[in-house]
Model the fold of this input.
Amino acid sequence: MGFGNDFGAPREMHDAKCSDCGAETKVPFKPTDGKPVYCRECYAKRKPRRF
Done:
């Protein structure tokens, strides 16, 4: 039993603009109008930290 032929394959990346800082970035999903998208740095700032 496996995960299929695509397991471990690179994801398709989509161009996007960060909703916070405006930087051009790439995301592993197709951005949807009306939903914010964040670059790696802004996402890390917004992500709740676990201790």
Remarks:
- The chain is about 15% helix and 15% strand.
- The radius of gyration is 14 Å.
- Strands lie at 14-17, 24-27.
- The helical segments are 40-46.
